[in-house]
Specification:
single chain; 264 residues; alpha/beta; Undecaprenyl pyrophosphate synthetase; 46% helix; binds 3-methylbut-3-enyl trihydrogen diphosphate; binds magnesium ion
Length: 264
């Protein structure tokens, strides 16, 4: 059966989708092209997926675009990725405004080259009031780095007497993460087959549904996303409870609400 032929149920869509966009290099290699061409084609997938998510009604889309570890790649590849990022931000601003997309970023963005950082700040500022969807880019992002930065900031608050150690709950802790104010991802998609997290959103994906596709990122487009969303809607999220508990809609709804609140 072609799952895309019936509509998605709006009441059980993920609020937040996170994606590990992997496989640009392999896509290029298969075609005897250089890796940069793979990244360039990957940008086309980003455009298509952002549009699709906006149309489907996803509230938050987080894309892993550059990790703290990716700084160790050859300098030429790093500078090409930075150039592509800047070009993407410049070229997409008008469409973000038209479609009500707000751009945010997580990660140690202070490490980005100054020209990229300036454009990033400008696009974030210009799109700040947009209400349609949040496009959240993980840039110079590492989950461990984010947790350590949060711990440092909490330590400063404690040292200055503004926070007591016993007040540090899961909720308080998550308010110090780069993702504060966002719901946790309901769905995590990784392209190109690797079964690993690669330091992405370590805290936030505690209860995310994980989907790994063999498709390389440059070939990942809306049709496949819709198939994955159908699969997501067929899964039962139990959050540690029993299936019976979750299916009793009153208990299930209550538990889900409580857990989501606990997790900030
Ligand atoms: C993902 O594609 C893009 C970034 C990590 C920036 P890769 O460049 O990792 O592609 P592969 O894994 O080498 O195929
Ligand atoms: C993860 O992909 C990072 C991004 C998609 C930005 P990598 O290609 O860097 O991950 P590993 O090295 O295969 O774990
Ligand atoms: Mg890779």
């Amino acid at each position: 059966m072609n799952s895309s032929s019936f509509p998605l149920r709006p009441e059980s869509l993920p609020r937040h989708i996170a994606m590990i966009m992997d496989g640009n290099g392999r896509w290029a290699k298969k075609r005897a092209l250089n890796r940069i061409r793979g990244h360039r084609e990957g940008v086309e997938s980003v455009r298509d997926i952002v549009r699709a998510c906006r149309e489907i009604g996803i509230e938050f889309l987080t894309l892993y675009a550059f990790s703290t570890e990716n700084w160790l790649r050859p300098a030429l590849e790093v500078s090409a990725l930075m150039r592509l990022l800047k070009e993407f931000l410049e070229s997409e601003l008008s469409e973000m405004m038209e479609n009500g997309i707000r751009l945010t970023a997580i990660g140690d963005i202070g490490r980005l080259p100054e020209d990229v950082l300036n454009v990033l700040h400008e696009v974030m500022e210009r799109t700040r009031e947009n209400q349609g969807m949040v496009l959240n880019l993980a840039l110079s992002y590492g989950g461990r780095d984010e947790i350590v930065r949060a711990a440092q900031n909490i330590a400063i608050q404690v040292k200055e007497g503004r926070l007591h150690p016993e007040e540090i709950s899961k909720e308080v802790f998550s308010n110090y993460l780069d993702t504060h104010g966002m719901p946790e991802p309901d769905l995590l998609i990784r392209t190109s087959g690797e079964m690993r997290i690669s330091n992405f959103l370590l805290w936030q994906i505690a209860y995310a549904e994980i989907f790994v596709t063999q498709t390389l990122w440059p070939e990942f487009r809306r049709e496949e996303l819709i198939r994955i969303l159908h699969d997501y809607q067929d899964r039962e999220r139990r959050f540690g409870m029993t299936g019976d508990q979750m299916r009793k809609s009153s208990t299930g709804g209550e538990i889900k609400k409580r857990l989501q609140k606990d997790n900030g």
